[in-house]
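Data availability (excerpt). The following record was deposited with the supplementary files.
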Amino acid sequence: MPSNAPLWKGYSGLIETPKSGSFDYSDRITFVQEFEGTVSDVRIYASLHPRGSLYTIVGLTGAFFVEKTTVAPDRGGRATATTSYLYLGLTPPDEWSVTPFEINPALSRNELFSALTSHDLQLARAAFTSAQAKGQDSINNAIAGSTNAALTQLLVNKWLKGVETFYLAGLKYQWTQFLYSMAGIFLREGGYRETPGGPGVYPSGMTWLRQCDEVVWNNGIYRVTRTWVGGPSYDSGLWDPDIYPITPR
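Predicted structure:
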């Protein structure tokens, strides 16, 4: 035997190292196995344990998905293969979040101007767009004779100062579930009014629009995310009932 050839004592092929068999109990249970052997044997083992492959572990109950397998070469023609498995008997807990976003609607939709009628808004828009034009006096007279004259003129004055929108924050509520199977799970396309479901906490006094659901499959688990966007309930123009029904799609 050449002097530089590796000498394996007591076994042939792969052996399990003393560090093998560790568990990590967090959101998911991870089980790690580690084997040593020749580089060629370790590579063959690694090729049989790609990410996403399903295995049962001797002495353990349930199925395991391979998360990753790594090969670390060593001196003397040796190598170590480390395989990390995800246990399929436990899913992560549900997740939820509430994050703000800016709506910045038109100034006329501010609660200050909620008493204005469609006719009042037409007069205000006409007064703003036809300033210093022929017929301006007749528009001003029409505003002066309306029930909401002062409020209508206030809106026109703010437009003339360049104030056309105002800051208004909406909320995006998301609820994520982790599932082994999609059986009995109905996905929604969104586009309708609905109060959020799930375990989260969000402010009252808001109206909500359901958005399209999202599904991501990752190594044996489906991640289903449902999303709603909400705004203040006084602003009926956010989710127009003629456009956004209450019937799921």
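Summary of structural features: The mean pLDDT is 85.
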